[in-house]
Amino acid sequence: MFPTAALFLSLLVASASSSPTNLSRRTTSPVAVGYYTGWHNDDFPLTDVSWEKYTHMIYSFAETVEDPSGALYLNRSSPEVIPDFVKAAHDNNVKAMIAVGGWTGSLHFSTNVENDANRKAFVQSVVSLVQSYGFDGVDFDWEYPGSEVGVGCNAKSPDDTANYLLFLQELRADPAGKDFVVSAPTAVRPWLDASGNPSSDVSGFADVLDFITIMNYDLWGSWSATAGPNAPLDDSCESADKQEGSAVSSVKAWNDAGMPSDHIVMGVATYGHSFSVNASSAFPNGDGVLAAYPLFDASVRLVGDSWDNSTGSDVCGKPFLASGNMDLWGLVEGGWLTEEGVAADGIAYVYGDCDRTPRVYNQEAEHFVSFDDATSVAEKGVLISTMGLRGFAMWEAGGDYKDILLDSVRASSSLF
Questions:
Q1: pTM
Q2: Cα separations (Å) of 1 from 4, 7, 390, 408?
């Protein structure tokens, strides 16, 4: 069904290292994960979820608090929706999970797990949250252990990754926690060790996590030197300055550090990033062919679709601007794409030869968007199948349009 993707990926996988021995005793049945954001419930109600196409749905977010024994904070995520969320999931034989952390909710992870007493208290807080709502498990979205990356005021320590593992082991030792589904989103490189480098051995996490989800998105954005792919499939055929990470290189990095392929879920983005690009940069050769990595005006922050962040102050008290994010439905609604999810008339389109991701450009607005369409997501699905990954996770379920991306990754991964 996808011969181009299959041929391309067969060449990549042939040169990749084999998956390490799976030391975990946890189950490895395929997973189709969606993230559900309570704050978007009005626009994407539970009745709009294609429950039959998922195995796990993760409610986002419960946020960490300073006291590890305190109740996790839910007020920014419409907690009144949670009972109906859990019921809807269970009525459809889908595992209902709660995500802890996130971009603005990871401030206190480091201190919550920094010593034995705090870890024990934090375990009980997590167990209480899961049990009080009837969740089946928890997704620890710590962004990012031991790193400067994050919202900007997260607590951090060189021992974060080591303490993270001790906390997860403590959770698994708990009579209730031992039976939870436990997962963790990750960066494209393994969590940092005490020296500040990607960990060379994360095999211990495979014994306590059911799966990790590699967040293969946000690799290019307003912070980058040029416009580029939000979620590249591969970057090995690019020049060194364009190798920010990719689906292929991230799987290899985690494999090499001891995470088995069947414990890896590939994150799939339902949104893209915007850039302000003038016509001469967009079409540098004057032939109407859209550049894949054009220069952009960083002083102009474009507003994305109606889900884009408004301006204001973040949890660190620092001002933020609109993100420019465009969900797939927003690209359709805004006239960039047709109802079938392909470039509309008058919209320039290019598909990266190496990174295997699309871009669209509105010349009148000088607005460039790197995103994922059915073709690029199909290639990621083939990678999931070819590299023996556990499945996929979509951030977020409500960002898709009429299941264009969901149906594509399901069909191409051959797991469901």
A1: 0.94
A2: 9, 12, 21, 11
